[in-house]
Amino acid sequence: MEILSACKECIRLWDLYQMYPNIKRHSIAVTKVAFFLANKLNSINHFVSINKVIKGALLHDIAKSRCIKTGEDHCKLGREICEKHGLYDIAEIVEEHVRLKDPLQNGVVNEKHIVCYADKRVMHSEIVTLEERLEDILKRYAQNRPDAEERILRNFHVAKNLEQIIFEKIGIEPVLLSSLIREAKELSIFDSLGEMDEH
Ligand SMILES: [Fe+2]
Ligand SMILES: [Fe+2]
After folding, report:
1. Residue 147 sits in which domain range?
2. Of the bound ligands, which one is closest to the alpha carbon of residue 30?
């Protein structure tokens, strides 16, 4: 089964890069959001690769555990890790999951947009609104740092624009996302990934 084999490949890298359990839980929640949105888009003939979305979401924070210790940029290092393991198709998704280089072209939502947006709807492992996530990020990274605050707000507006475009396409209210994901039985496939090992 394609989904499961994509997941297994990612779990192997989680182990190899000693991902912390809380980052695994976060990544699973981001994957559920991203997968849900990608399926909805595909169902209205706006095609995105489910395989790329799943792998990109599961691995978007692959470098985070190491970067917490070393202070390196987890987006850049994440890209390098993907390339090192031949995952060229998701290297850009991982690199741009915090900040998109090309926010949106002609209303065409792609896998990078989906993973970046999904990451902004998940605080720790809980689905929240963009505004709740913004408040948390400002508290953590922008205290007495006007330069950081400006950058974060700019990024928030990009995410808000993305939200409007995605949700208008799929015909859902953004605030309903967490309850819809809770009810979506097909997403339970991702729940056990935190305990799965590579063998
Ligand atoms: Fe991240
Ligand atoms: Fe993340």
Report:
1. 2-189
2. 2
The CA-to-CA distance between both ends of the chain, in Å, stands at: 17
What's residue 199's pLDDT? 44
pLDDT digits (tens, 9 = 90+) for 124-164: 999 999 999 999 999 999 999 999 999 999 999 999 999 99
Question: Does residue 196 form part of some domain?
Answer: no
Domains identified in the chain, total number: 1
- The answer to whether position 199 is within a domain reads no
Tell me how far the alpha carbon of residue 182 lies from the centroid of ligand 1, in angstroms: 23
- 160 CA distance to ligand 1 middle (Å): 18
The enclosing domain of 89 has a CATH number of 1.10.3210
Radius of gyration of the chain (CA): 16
- Ligand 1 center to residue 156 CA distance, Å? 15
Residue 179 tokens read as 């309850």
User: pLDDT of 57-84, one tens digit each?
Assistant: 999 999 999 999 999 999 999 999 999 9
C-alpha of residue 120 to centroid of ligand 1, in Å: 9
How many Cα neighbours within 13 Å face the side chain of 198? 10
Please give the pLDDT value at position 198.
45
Give domain status of residue 142, yes or no: yes
Ligand 2 midpoint to CA 23 (Å): 8
Question: What pLDDT shows up at residue 194?
Answer: 74
Is 127 inside a domain boundary?
Answer: yes
Asked whether the beta carbons of 35 and 51 are under 8 A apart, the reply is no
